[in-house]
Amino acid sequence: MACEEFPNNFDVVVLGTGLTETIAAAAFSRIGLKVLHLDRNDYYGGAYSNFNLDGIEDWRKANETRNSDCNEDEEIPDKVKDLLQNGETVISLNRDNKTAFNIQARFHVRERTAEEQAKADLKFNTFKFPSLNEQNPTSDISQEEEEKKEDAEQSESPATDSGVSSCTEKLNEMLSLTTTSDNTAEVCEIKDFSQPEPPKSDCEDSHAAQVENPPKHREWTVGDIKDDWRRYCLDISPKILYCCGDLVDLLIQSDVARYCEFRSVSRVLTVLNNLLLQIMNLALKNIKANYLDKPFIEFLKSKKLTPNIQHYIQHAIAMVTDSELSQVGLTKTKKFIQSLGRYGNNAFLFPLYGTGELPQAFSRLSAVFGGIYCLATTATHLIADSDRKCCGIITSKGQRISCRYVVAECSYLPPSLVLKLNKRMLSRAVYITDSSLLPTGDSELSLLHYVSPKDSERPVTVLELPSSACVCPKNTFIIHLTTISNHNDPSEDFNDVRETLFANEVLVQNKDTVKPKILWSIYFNQEDNSKVKLTEDAVTNVLVASGGGDPGVDLDWCVAEAKVIFHTVCPTEEFLPKPPNPEDIILVDDAEASTCQGTSEYLEKNKEEISEIQETVSTDSVQEAV
Amino acid sequence: MASRKKVLLKVIILGDSGVGKTSLMNQYVAKKFSNQYKATIGADFLTKEVMVDDRLVTMQIWDTAGQERFQSLGVAFYRGADGCVLVFDVTMPNTFRSLDSWRDEFLIQASPRDPENFPFVVIGNKIDLENRAVSARRAQGWCHSKGDIPYFETSAKEAINVEQAFQAVAKNAMAQESDVELCSDFPDPIKLKDDQAKPRENCAC
């Protein structure tokens, strides 16, 4: 595993492996450009990464000691100067960066007693050395799990219902679900729009179900959770994909989809006593221009909807605040409706193991097409020529690399070069819990847009993930909460949602036991770096990519951003066209090359095209990525 | 057993750069060999259907795509692997010494349910070359110490023993698979494909 030097010349150097950068890198490599892709961290994803329980603790500690300040005036070391040619200057880059602030993580359960620890050690040992005992180490609970499995299978809805293909049909079917209200309801499930099953009018049903099937009253300990530390995949920027969104289309078109698998976000929950709505049809048919610049809520009111239905469309489907304009609300509503039916009857998908898998999937495509990847390595300096045009970098290993373009995630560039347009912070919480917010089987992924009665402008996006999403062990759930920060302490931003939806830690007995209990939690703030641009001081041929931290649920905007970056460098090239079949991508000997359909010939062909493009691309073309 | 699910095995190939991972994969699946694989370009994964105990199995063999060169294989690469082929070059002792760290890396990143019995196979490649530097006995010894990992000496160039090595990993992975089937209580995840009809852009509603 010896380390070698990089080649000295590349077309594009990409700094940071967040989603935008990896999509762009894949697009460059795909058409044959030479790409060097670096990340200062020893993991992929930057602000989009995911960690196991140990990993997130390392991440927390690293962020405590990290320093975001870049000393732009620092003296240039002699060994860097030695690498420069006549007339060249260097710009110091950020070597380190805090990706989160005010991080607090803790367990909410007790430690094991000495006796329990001894028992656990014994079990752990039989697991490690199962030489004589062929039994599954978890056999003592296997019967219980068998039963659970059957339950899960029964509750599984048919995977595909191909009859539903147009929005109109879907909406008509929605109409068949008339709604009744019941004041005792707390969390209502809005599910499976096309199944004309009798609507659950309130939560009494589900609460009753819980009584029949009470969640296991197991007392958790820190050790129980730590034993499974590798089975947790905790995203720091949990996101979902619209089934008909740009990212899903790009994954399919580029074949990156073959590197990942997904689960449907099978439930959309809302905290209200009402269920379905007739209005979807009306709302979409009557997109009236005169509402486009008025708040969405006024549009909904004008349609004489009952407050509950307004609430449902606004919060569960469009997910907008009261002040959001109709145009935004209607666009989001439309996107939601269009996304139904493509992969089952749900609008959203979640990647198995978490959002952090997506940048890795695009990185792989880049690598397959020759992109060179190196983690835990960054650029310490940008090299600019006498025309203030970027012409290379110095790596943290002290190597000079020449390149035509540098694409950098914003945190790699010094503050003097980047304008951050969204000056706000997000608050995030991640909980490990012992049950679902609405237990109806253990394989539902749920989305809830929670609006606090106290602060309707700061809704909380809640994403609940079960073990079937491969983010946690059986019998646990991961619940992600996201909101725009309003307090210095991120946990305070979730006080209301925590009190409403989760068991009270002090009064754990009886009454509250149907609510999920928080076993472990982490809170942190993230800077919203989703809108950035370069300042006028910036050198040319440097492109900036956003650094995540937006409060939205999806990632489609990263596709648009990567496309702009790509087309700035390659204005006439196709963006991530479908690759040939893996079977066709085989390098062969020179002798065979003339008759081969494989990559070598393919790349050669592209080389010519690329050099043509290089000539046509004006070197001082647009620098802004966004 | 008519109603049994179609079996797909994900097998990943690990080992230092230049030991012949891509060549082995190509020899096994495409029956081709090239001296040209300096650093892997264009190698993704290949699939091959194999018979294991009268059962048709689709084996998906994943190459590192060159990301091992600077120790930058992301954890996503390892996810859900059913088998792992560890490769070294019998003429390069340092590639043999790396097997320990590749095995550890795999167990940490893939975190299989039963690490002690995970279906590894070790391949000592390039036995067609004259300048051999790692003896079969030494390699056997290491494999024995790691829970009797099957060991194969191959030449991707001469197509010696390649078939046997991959057949062994498929067979052992299937033996584990039958355990896994018992615990997979969830429906298959969704693969994104082109064939799902996309609802019309401008629908009437």
UniProtKB/TrEMBL annotation, chain A:
Chain intervals for the UniProt region annotation (Disordered): 126-166, 193-215, 607-626
First-listed, main subcellular location of the protein, grouped into a coarse class: cytoplasm
Domain RAE1/2 residues, every copy: 426-547
Annotated Gene Ontology cellular component terms: cytosol; nucleus; Rab-protein geranylgeranyltransferase complex
Name of this protein: Rab proteins geranylgeranyltransferase component A
Endpoints of the signal sequence: none
GO molecular function: GDP-dissociation inhibitor activity; GTPase activator activity
Keywords: Cytoplasm, GTPase activation
Gene Ontology terms: biological process: intracellular protein transport; small GTPase-mediated signal transduction; vesicle-mediated transport
Protein purpose: Substrate-binding subunit (component A) of the Rab geranylgeranyltransferase (GGTase) complex. Binds unprenylated Rab proteins and presents the substrate peptide to the catalytic component B. The component A is thought to be regenerated by transferring its prenylated Rab back to the donor membrane.
Biased composition, class Basic and acidic residues, residue ranges: 193-207
Lineage, broadest ranks: Eukaryota, Metazoa, Spiralia, Lophotrochozoa, Mollusca
Compartment list: Cytoplasm, Cytosol
Family: Belongs to the Rab GDI family.
InterPro entries listed in its UniProt record: FAD/NAD-bd_sf, GDP_dissociation_inhibitor, Rab_escort, RAE1_2_domI_C
Compositional bias ranges of the Polar residues kind: 613-626
Organism: Biomphalaria pfeifferi
Automatic annotation (TrEMBL), chain B:
Keywords: GTP-binding, Lipoprotein, Nucleotide-binding, Prenylation
Localization per record: Late endosome membrane
A GO cellular component entry from the record: late endosome membrane
Molecular function GO labels: GTP binding; GTPase activity
One of the GO BP terms on file: phagosome-lysosome fusion
Domain of life: Eukaryota
Assigned protein family: Belongs to the small GTPase superfamily. Rab family.
Name the UniProt record assigns to this protein: Ras-related protein Rab-7a
Organism: Biomphalaria pfeifferi
Lineage: Eukaryota, Metazoa, Spiralia, Lophotrochozoa, Mollusca
